[in-house]
Design goal:
The chain has one domain (2-201): Rossmann fold (3-Layer(aba) Sandwich), CATH 3.40.50.720. The chain is 38% helix and 22% strand. The protein contains nine helices and twelve strands. The strands form three sheets. An eight-stranded mixed beta sheet has the order 3-2-1-4-5-8-11-12, sandwiched between helices. Helix 1 (10-21) runs parallel beside helix 2 (33-43) and helix 4 packs parallel to helix 6. The protein binds NADP nicotinamide-adenine-dinucleotide phosphate. This is NADP oxidoreductase.
Amino acid sequence: MRIGILGTGGMAAALGSAWTAAGHHVMIGGRDRVRARQTAERISASGHGTLTDAAGHGDAVLVAIPAAQAPAVVGGLAEHLAGRTVVDCTNPLAPTGEGLMLATSDGTSLAGRLAMAAPGAHVVKAFNMCHVSIWSMRPPVFEDVALSVPYCADHPTAIVVTQTLISSIGCTPAPCGGLARAGYLEATAAFAIGLWFAGGQPRAVFPSPAESPQP
Ligand SMILES: NC(=O)c1ccc[n+]([C@@H]2O[C@H](COP(=O)([O-])OP(=O)(O)OC[C@H]3O[C@@H](n4cnc5c(N)ncnc54)[C@H](OP(=O)(O)O)[C@@H]3O)[C@@H](O)[C@H]2O)c1
């Protein structure tokens, strides 16, 4: 698959490296072409270029820039993103006196904002739940269980593309409904990050009823 990545930082490198190792054709796109080249060379990506180059390259396009800037950047690329699967891994969080809080207080998820900014794109929420260090694992497996990657998507093609992005790096796709539910993934990431900072273990918080001796 052809994958364009908007961003040259930690998430771009971690997921771009995993997808490159899985045989996908990854193009790193950045506003700084030197950084785009450096990141692409570091992970042996197929190519590098501008944000527009990466948007136009991908069957899938990963948005790996800060949430606060993402709607404007994606809106500016809307014509290049039309018809493509646009994967939003951003976490719209802002520091407050109560800790990191969601910065989407009007109730519209960041993924929903990207869908409004680029109406022809097939926006998906995915890959936002884990720290960059987890995406750097080959593969991310814990106690012999592959990492589950929750995603929210509406478009049938985008669902298939997302499942491929997830399974090709050794993870298990976990469908969580349509894009209207993307805010739940963003809120859950905010919750999990707060728990990490408090020294807690999110993996211990969510056992399914099936794991109880009396389900
Ligand atoms: N780090 C994590 O553990 C993690 C986990 C899950 C999700 N996420 C999400 O993934 C996204 C990227 O995080 P990261 O850790 O990869 O961040 P990062 O290492 O700081 O990289 C951010 C990238 O965004 C680019 N950027 C910043 N403002 C921009 C703008 N206005 N236009 C175009 N590009 C811009 C930066 O370019 P320059 O180098 O030119 O500044 C850089 O390439 C964030 O939304 C974050 O919430 C992060």
